[in-house]
Design brief:
This protein is mostly helical. It has helices at 2-44, 52-58, 60-101, 107-157, 185-201; strands spanning 46-51, 163-169.
Length: 203
């Protein structure tokens, strides 16, 4: 009986020793694995960036769109100037007619002239609002197309680059430090221009 008790005590002591060993050695191994994983994650977490100003200045598609928008704006301003000139000429004509009639002018004539000018002003305001709304819609559509083109290109570009993020940078943005090693602006402009040239060359 005493022998069994002694054997059980020895076994318990051995098992306790084994558990202590596994516990502390296992933690070391886990820590080692954890540190290695952290190092790998740290080394693989890269953030690239591109300069918005440079992209706008050198991307041919953006320059073409900007030129189209300038022409559209010039056309809008030209039409509004013509409408305004028509209004001013009509005001002068009516004033001249009123002066020539002198005392013979009737209240009905005055009311008719006022209604005509009010209608011209209303038409001008409505046309101006319509043109500006169309201009704004075109701008939004162009920016959405530009954004999607850049995003789609960067998805392909980053397949073998391994960046976790690729951010856009512009002057005034809160960025205290940027390493030019991670500047992908040149690659982006070159790739986008080649893509755009190929697209323009298609019949």
């Amino acid at each position: 009986m005493r022998n069994i008790s002694t054997i059980l005590s020895v076994l318990a002591l051995v098992l306790t020793g084994v558990l202590f060993y596994l516990h502390f050695n296992g933690n070391k191994e886990l820590k080692k694995v954890s540190v290695e994983a952290e190092k790998t994650a740290h080394n693989s977490f890269r953030i690239g960036y591109f300069d918005i100003d440079s992209l706008q200045n050198h991307y041919e598609y953006f320059k073409d769109v900007l030129e189209q928008m300038k022409k559209k704006e010039a056309s809008m301003n030209n039409e509004l100037n013509q409408l305004n000139n028509q209004y001013q000429r009509r005001v002068q004509q009516l004033q001249s007619q009123m002066q020539s009639l002198g005392q013979a002018i009737t209240e009905a004539d005055q009311l008719k002239a006022q209604n005509e000018l009010a209608t011209m002003q209303r038409n001008f305001g409505e046309r101006k609002a319509s043109l500006e709304q169309d201009m704004q819609k075109t701008q939004v559509e162009n920016m959405a197309t530009l954004r999607k083109t850049v995003e789609d290109y960067l998805k392909d570009y980053n397949k073998d680059k391994g960046y976790a993020f690729i951010l856009s940078y512009e002057p005034g943005l809160l960025m205290y430090y940027k390493d030019t090693m991670y500047d992908v602006t040149g690659d982006l402009i070159k790739g986008l221009n080649a893509q755009y040239a190929a697209k323009k060359g298609k019949p």
